[in-house]
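User: quick one, sequence for these tokens?
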């Protein structure tokens, strides 16, 4: 179980690496993100963020000759390299620099109205107070302007470094072997990381074990048994959310500025991922509860709308979560959304059928020609509507099979809704025998009219009982009336009661229903052949 969870989190980290690789310590090669920021400068000094990231990467790689290029100083050689080392220590240990807030524009943040060529990096804390760290936009010769750490800031760096030199450092109290650097990091720091990761997972596991019975108790108290399993599914998102919170808190105690930034971004991404996952699960549970309530109250007209809105809310939350993660990963959302707008036409043409079904589903839900639970006839299909989704509508037929009809196609088909009937047509034809006399016919007509008029579920204004035809084998009486019933089953019960009453009337009038008769005539003489016998039988039947 723990191995599977670890693999999932590692997979998530791998998926996040492409978006975060611009913030990781790296070799001098430019990444795609930094290439955008450093289009006019090979060292990435065209923007404030590019300058700070470039300096920190060079310093963590112990390439102080390269790091000096990010300083606006007249010092050279060992003095310049020592100044770069001191600035690295200040930024790593006692600064409040947030790399996410640094501007990625060549003109900077533009918040400093007094001097637009200066950009605030952060604040360094000393025993005597806080000292601001500034970048300054400098133009050298005919080259494009670049951002460098300002001279005023660099003058204060030795004093700040001397002040923080007395601050206890864990490495001073450890054996020299643990201070050996591995991949630009002290060995003791790798030991702390290896201990912290299992500790974080252990805390997440304990949190999940404690949370599961609490959620089960809350679900059993306020919800039904069917929703308890759904509520248990909230443990996973909450565990991811907790892991993100722990990483975000732990990032403040990271050894370097870049590691604080990386773990802070990773923790924030996990928080957004967990919150998005949790929101979608909560919306799903709320949707199920609301649909169950609508079914209990038989509000079938709102079931499809509630289902559609629930899905749209979940999709909206997912889109917001993805956009937030992309923003944290450094993606330019303005350019991305502009690209989506330009490519929207191509997507619309490619997904024409999908969009047709989507708008067809919205039209069906808004116009409500059918609702979930309605008995209907769509084309040649007769059944009950089971679900109306974004893409298709499901019909359960009389054979208990499910037929799925795309909403775009359903919007153009002939649709007959049986459930929306306000009354049912009762229209039998009573065929009486030819032996029925005039008095018997009048008695039958009168009593059937009385039966319909006195029945509480028959609309008396629409009743009609008429002797309409003298046929070759019967005398036909047409009965016409509308039955007021809530559903088809109730109508069948009322119709049965009326038909039994009509049979009792026919019987009380001492007459009977006409039955098809077949007479066979035998003629003396030679026996007729089989075709002649069939012909005589058919003729007698017609008479």
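Assistant:
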């Amino acid at each position: 179980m723990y191995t599977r969870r670890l693999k999932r989190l590692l997979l998530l980290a791998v998926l996040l690496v492409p978006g975060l690789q611009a913030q990781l310590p790296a070799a001098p090669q430019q990444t795609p993100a930094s290439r955008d920021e450093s289009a006019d400068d090979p060292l990435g000094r065209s923007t404030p963020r590019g300058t700070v990231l470039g300096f920190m990467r060079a310093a963590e790689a112990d390439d102080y000759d390269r790091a000096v290029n990010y300083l606006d100083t007249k010092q050279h050689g060992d003095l310049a390299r020592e100044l770069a080392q001191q600035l690295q220590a200040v930024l790593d240990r006692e600064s409040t620099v947030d790399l996410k807030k640094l501007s990625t524009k060549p003109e900077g943040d533009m918040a400093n109205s007094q001097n637009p060529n200066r950009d605030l990096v952060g604040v360094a804390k000393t025993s005597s107070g806080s000292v601001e760290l500034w970048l300054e936009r400098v133009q050298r010769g005919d080259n494009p302007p670049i951002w460098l750490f300002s001279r005023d800031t660099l003058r204060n760096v030795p004093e700040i470094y001397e002040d923080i030199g007395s601050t206890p450092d864990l490495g001073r109290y450890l054996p020299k072997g643990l201070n050996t650097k591995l991949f630009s990091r002290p060995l003791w720091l790798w030991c702390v990381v290896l201990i912290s990761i299992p500790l974080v997972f252990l805390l997440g596991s304990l949190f999940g074990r404690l949370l599961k019975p609490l959620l089960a108790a809350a679900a059993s108290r306020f919800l039904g048994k069917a929703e308890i399993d759904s509520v248990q599914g909230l443990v996973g998102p909450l565990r991811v959310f907790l892991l993100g919170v722990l990483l975000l808190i732990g990032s403040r105690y990271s050894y370097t500025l870049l590691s604080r930034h990386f773990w802070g971004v990773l923790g924030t991404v996990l928080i957004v991922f967990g919150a998005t996952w949790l929101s979608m699960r909560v919306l799903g549970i709320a949707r199920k509860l609301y649909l169950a309530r609508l079914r209990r109250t038989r509000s079938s007209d709102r079931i499809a709308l509630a289902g559609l809105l629930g899905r749209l809310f979940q999709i909206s939350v997912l889109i917001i979560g993805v956009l937030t993660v992309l923003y944290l990963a450094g993606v330019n959302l303005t350019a991305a959304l502009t690209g989506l707008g330009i490519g929207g036409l191509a997507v619309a043409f490619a997904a024409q059928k999908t969009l047709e079904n989507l708008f067809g589903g919205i039209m069906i839900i808004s116009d409500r020609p059918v609702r979930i639970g309605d008995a209907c006839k769509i084309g040649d299909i007769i059944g009950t509507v089971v679900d109306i989704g974004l893409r298709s509508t499901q019909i359960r037929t009389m054979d208990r099979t499910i037929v799925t009809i795309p909403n775009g196609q359903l919007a153009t088909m002939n649709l007959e809704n049986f459930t929306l009937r306000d009354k049912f047509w009762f229209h039998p034809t009573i065929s009486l025998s030819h032996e029925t006399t005039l008095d018997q016919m009048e008695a039958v007509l009168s009593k059937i009219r009385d039966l319909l008029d006195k029945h509480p579920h028959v609309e008396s204004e629409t009743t009609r009982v008429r002797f309409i035809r003298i046929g070759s084998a019967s005398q036909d009486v047409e009965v016409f009336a509308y039955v007021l019933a809530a559903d088809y089953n109730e109508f069948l019960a009322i119709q049965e009661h009326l038909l039994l009453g009509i049979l009792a009337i026919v019987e009380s009038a001492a007459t009977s229903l006409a039955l098809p008769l077949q007479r066979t005539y035998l003629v003396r003489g030679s026996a007729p052949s089989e075709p002649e016998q069939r012909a005589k039988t058919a003729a007698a039947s017609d008479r």
